[in-house]
Amino acid sequence: MIPLMPSVEFDAALVRKLNQMGPRYTSYPTADRFSAGFGAPQYQAAVARLDAAGGQAPFSLYVHIPFCESLCYYCGCNKIITQDRGKSAEYLRYLGREMALQAAVLGARRKVDQLHFGGGTPTYLSDAQMDGLLAQLRACFDFAPDEEGEFSIEVDPRTVTPARIATLRRQGFNRISLGIQDFVPAVQQAVNRIQSHQQTMEVLQAARDSGFRSISVDLIYGLPLQSVASFGPTLDKVVAARPDRIAVYNYAHMPQLFKAQRLIQAGDLPDPEAKLGMLGLCIERLTAAGYVYIGMDHFALPDDDLARSQRQGRLQRNFQGYSTHAEAPLVALGVSAISAVGNTYAQNEKTLGDYYARLDAGELPIARGITLNDDDLLRRQVISRLMCDFIVDYDRLPLPGGVAPQTYFAAELQRLKVLEDDGLLCAGSRGSRVRMRGRLLIRNICMAFDRYLHDGPQLARYSRTI
Ligand code: SF4
């Protein structure tokens, strides 16, 4: 039994004061810094550099399935709403082509020890389509055995039966993530996502019965018609089901960026104080129920791999949130998907038309990306350690020869001083440690190290802390 230590402190006044727009740092530099000057040649060069540096290390694979049957009004994902199954069949043909091109670049039968299917709705695919796709992947790559690898899939409980869940386990998935958001019918109606408590619990139980190693659920606070009073019962039901991981996302209403959100009545949205109350309630209920705050919306049971990796200093942050696989290169397949290989990020074309056209031309469908310079790599390491460990040790950073951290990060240490005065962290010349009350505001701390924000702030496209 792991003794339960405090993992976060909710200080409403502090969150209220420092609530500001900022990146979520699933990458550094953030995706808005990618440029069209980066393409397939730069990506191939990154793979070659990686191979030259360390041989053929296992990597992580992400597969993006963009289709959904109906539109959730809060959605900010890259998805395609359609009931036309012919579209997914066509997509799978192109995905097969991209896979073959990637396999040729990566070399014969590279080892994959982490696979994630995201979307969209991966379970939009039929059993037969999923079988075909997995067979193609296994023909191209060498998957780790079930007990070693992490093979996860995002599941929309509305699209599956318990029998389908058992099939997914047989197909090789051993981790599952279920979208819930909120159990209150009026809230579900307001966001066009009707999903009963019973339906969700049946799927969750089926995942348990089928032998999934880790079950994760997603909730959202800040949706229309939600209140502190209404969100409590949803949290209680989730806690009673005891998933291994719980992600509680803050809904960011940005209708200027996400068209679907224009279907939400702005007058139905909870005000910032109510959202703050819901955030406080999440912290209180989930930590009281024994969950550890991992960081940035994520909670896990103390014996879950995420919590264990965090205790061992092995946690990583990537496009799916947090990952236990230390710095494995991430190769992403599918429209709009983002790879992270060596010192590069590479994003695929964002529309199906462009994605298909590039593959028709026999090219990797990379549309934009970035090659990180030494300063980017250094800052990425700082931000990653802060996000994952809540601590950064400047002596362990690959600073340019002879330059002291106090000199290199002089401006950053000044910015941290202000946050230290607010009680978020203890900042020293050798490193910084985030205090319990600063953990909810971790992105404010990371922003102090983001050179791009300070070179020319463009914050309108980012969401707020609450
Ligand atoms: S929230 Fe998920 S299921 Fe709903 S439209 Fe967006 S991608 Fe599809």
Automatic annotation (TrEMBL):
<feature type="binding site">
    <location>
        <position position="218"/>
    </location>
    <ligand>
        <name>S-adenosyl-L-methionine 2</name>
    </ligand>
</feature>
<dbReference type="GO" id="GO:0005737">
    <property type="term" value="C:cytoplasm"/>
</dbReference>
<keyword id="KW-0408">Iron</keyword>
<comment type="similarity">
    <text>Belongs to the anaerobic coproporphyrinogen-III oxidase family.</text>
</comment>
<feature type="binding site">
    <location>
        <begin position="74"/>
        <end position="76"/>
    </location>
    <ligand>
        <name>S-adenosyl-L-methionine 2</name>
    </ligand>
</feature>
<keyword id="KW-0949">S-adenosyl-L-methionine</keyword>
<feature type="domain" description="Radical SAM core">
    <location>
        <begin position="53"/>
        <end position="279"/>
    </location>
</feature>
<feature type="binding site">
    <location>
        <position position="72"/>
    </location>
    <ligand>
        <name>[4Fe-4S] cluster</name>
    </ligand>
</feature>
<comment type="subunit">
    <text>Monomer.</text>
</comment>
<keyword id="KW-0627">Porphyrin biosynthesis</keyword>
<comment type="pathway">
    <text>Porphyrin-containing compound metabolism; protoporphyrin-IX biosynthesis; protoporphyrinogen-IX from coproporphyrinogen-III (AdoMet route): step 1/1.</text>
</comment>
<keyword id="KW-0963">Cytoplasm</keyword>
<comment type="function">
    <text>Involved in the heme biosynthesis. Catalyzes the anaerobic oxidative decarboxylation of propionate groups of rings A and B of coproporphyrinogen III to yield the vinyl groups in protoporphyrinogen IX.</text>
</comment>
<feature type="binding site">
    <location>
        <position position="62"/>
    </location>
    <ligand>
        <name>S-adenosyl-L-methionine 1</name>
    </ligand>
</feature>
<feature type="binding site">
    <location>
        <position position="181"/>
    </location>
    <ligand>
        <name>S-adenosyl-L-methionine 2</name>
    </ligand>
</feature>
<keyword id="KW-0004">4Fe-4S</keyword>
<feature type="binding site">
    <location>
        <position position="338"/>
    </location>
    <ligand>
        <name>S-adenosyl-L-methionine 1</name>
    </ligand>
</feature>
<keyword id="KW-0479">Metal-binding</keyword>
<dbReference type="InterPro" id="IPR034505">
    <property type="entry name" value="Coproporphyrinogen-III_oxidase"/>
</dbReference>
<dbReference type="GO" id="GO:0051989">
    <property type="term" value="F:coproporphyrinogen dehydrogenase activity"/>
</dbReference>
<feature type="binding site">
    <location>
        <position position="154"/>
    </location>
    <ligand>
        <name>S-adenosyl-L-methionine 1</name>
    </ligand>
</feature>
<feature type="binding site">
    <location>
        <position position="75"/>
    </location>
    <ligand>
        <name>[4Fe-4S] cluster</name>
    </ligand>
</feature>
<feature type="binding site">
    <location>
        <position position="119"/>
    </location>
    <ligand>
        <name>S-adenosyl-L-methionine 1</name>
    </ligand>
</feature>
<keyword id="KW-0560">Oxidoreductase</keyword>
<dbReference type="GO" id="GO:0004109">
    <property type="term" value="F:coproporphyrinogen oxidase activity"/>
</dbReference>
<dbReference type="InterPro" id="IPR006638">
    <property type="entry name" value="Elp3/MiaA/NifB-like_rSAM"/>
</dbReference>
<feature type="binding site">
    <location>
        <position position="252"/>
    </location>
    <ligand>
        <name>S-adenosyl-L-methionine 2</name>
    </ligand>
</feature>
<dbReference type="InterPro" id="IPR023404">
    <property type="entry name" value="rSAM_horseshoe"/>
</dbReference>
<dbReference type="InterPro" id="IPR004558">
    <property type="entry name" value="Coprogen_oxidase_HemN"/>
</dbReference>
<dbReference type="Pfam" id="PF04055">
    <property type="entry name" value="Radical_SAM"/>
</dbReference>
<protein>
    <recommendedName>
        <fullName>Coproporphyrinogen-III oxidase</fullName>
        <ecNumber>1.3.98.3</ecNumber>
    </recommendedName>
</protein>
<dbReference type="InterPro" id="IPR058240">
    <property type="entry name" value="rSAM_sf"/>
</dbReference>
<dbReference type="GO" id="GO:0046872">
    <property type="term" value="F:metal ion binding"/>
</dbReference>
<feature type="binding site">
    <location>
        <position position="68"/>
    </location>
    <ligand>
        <name>[4Fe-4S] cluster</name>
    </ligand>
</feature>
<feature type="binding site">
    <location>
        <position position="193"/>
    </location>
    <ligand>
        <name>S-adenosyl-L-methionine 2</name>
    </ligand>
</feature>
<dbReference type="InterPro" id="IPR007197">
    <property type="entry name" value="rSAM"/>
</dbReference>
<dbReference type="GO" id="GO:0006782">
    <property type="term" value="P:protoporphyrinogen IX biosynthetic process"/>
</dbReference>
<feature type="binding site">
    <location>
        <begin position="120"/>
        <end position="121"/>
    </location>
    <ligand>
        <name>S-adenosyl-L-methionine 2</name>
    </ligand>
</feature>
<dbReference type="GO" id="GO:0051539">
    <property type="term" value="F:4 iron, 4 sulfur cluster binding"/>
</dbReference>
<keyword id="KW-0411">Iron-sulfur</keyword>
